[in-house]
Structure formats: C-alpha cells, structure tokens
Design goal:
This protein is an alpha+beta fold and 126 residues long. The chain has 3 helices and 4 strands. It has a 4-stranded antiparallel sheet, sandwiched between helices.
C-alpha cells in the first residue's frame, strides 16, 4: 500500500491558548508521521503521512477525536487528502506549505523503499 499525505483539521471549542496541550495530545496519539502545519485562534491543521486509506485512517483516529469532542476540547474535525501544492499568504515560508512538501518527500521515500523491496524479491526468484 503506498503512503499518502493527508490533512487533519481540528476546530477547538475555545482559543488554542486555553486548551492546554491539545496539539501535543493529538500528535502523541496519531501514531504516524505527523507535523503541525497550521494554527489559528481555534484551528489546528496537521500533515499526516501513512500507508492507510482515508477510511482506515478515519476509523483509527475517530475514537480519539470523538473522545476529545466529548470532553469539550474540540468542536469539529475533518480528515482529507492533502492537495499537491498550497499557496498561503506567507508564501513558501509558511509552515503548512513546508510540512506539505516534507510530507510528500517522506511519502515518496517510504514508497521508494517499498518498491525496492518488491523489486529485490522479484529479482531473487529469477
């Protein structure tokens, strides 16, 4: 299964400065390559790299996100495939654009190593 890049957007009920360690809690429980790419007053956006499909990733993350929702920390969450490029008001210096490129590089490296293992196995059989 090839590695893909996804965005996880979390809308907090309160200002992020009042939510304590929400960002750290999410990062520690995602259990895949994860970088915080964007934040605003009540919005966090993470860049994720995983071999899971969108549905598999959602099924794995939903219980943790629902528990944060039930505890009153977050209001909504959205998980979607990342676009191929992002243009922001800060240009290429923006963390979201940087971590999107870093996630694409990470996914490509992981996919490359998977292809090499697959090819090596085929070459041994010949």
């Amino acid at each position: 299964m090839p590695n893909e890049v996804y965005f996880l957007e979390i809308v907090a009920k309160n200002d992020l400065e009042d939510t304590g360690n929400l960002k750290a809690r999410v990062i520690s429980q995602v259990k895949c390559w994860c970088k915080p790419g964007f934040h605003a007053k009540r919005l966090l956006k993470f860049v994720l790299v995983t071999p899971e499909t969108l549905d598999q990733l959602f099924d794995r993350l939903a219980p943790m996100l629902e528990s944060l929702k039930d505890s009153g920390s977050i209001e909504r969450f959205v998980l979607h495939p990342a676009p191929s490029a992002v243009v922001t008001d800060h240009g290429k210096i923006d963390a979201l654009a940087h971590y999107l490129r870093a996630g694409q590089v990470e996914a490509a490296e992981r996919n490359k190593s998977q292809r090499l293992r697959h090819l090596e196995g085929r070459q041994r059989r010949v």
